[in-house]
Prior knowledge:
This protein is an alpha+beta fold. It has one domain (7-109): CATH 2.40.50.100. The protein has helices spanning 28-34, 80-84, 88-91, 116-124, and strands spanning 7-8, 13-18, 21-26, 37-41, 48-49, 54-60, 64-68, 73-78, 100-104. Strand 1 and strand 2 form a beta hairpin.
Amino acid sequence: xxxRDYLYSREHEWLRVEDDxxxxxxxxxxxxxxxxxxxxxxxxxxxxxxANDELGTIESVKAVAEVFTPVAGEIxxxxxxVVDDPELLNEDPHGEGWLIKIRFSSADxxxxxxxxxxxxxxxxxxxx
Length: 128
């Protein structure tokens, strides 16, 4: 269910590392917990964040959830398709439903991320 080449956070974000960029999104688990997504607010290109900063929000019919960045860096791209059509998060959270691309400033931030197998165990453990 979870792409093996992604990294995962305890806050249910995923990262796909592409050289010095990370593509960030929310996991299948997160979107299932949220339910039908109706609104997505994302940062502007050029904004700089520290690791674990809140960078946006996702509203569903059930709740509002904050999105955090596991890595420090600068936003270089925002997925306007998700802003225009929030249902993409429900339809394809690990693909077309990506949220932002961030140029990360330290690879050390990636060390705390979980591999897919670890994340699956985390979700199944009930701690999530």
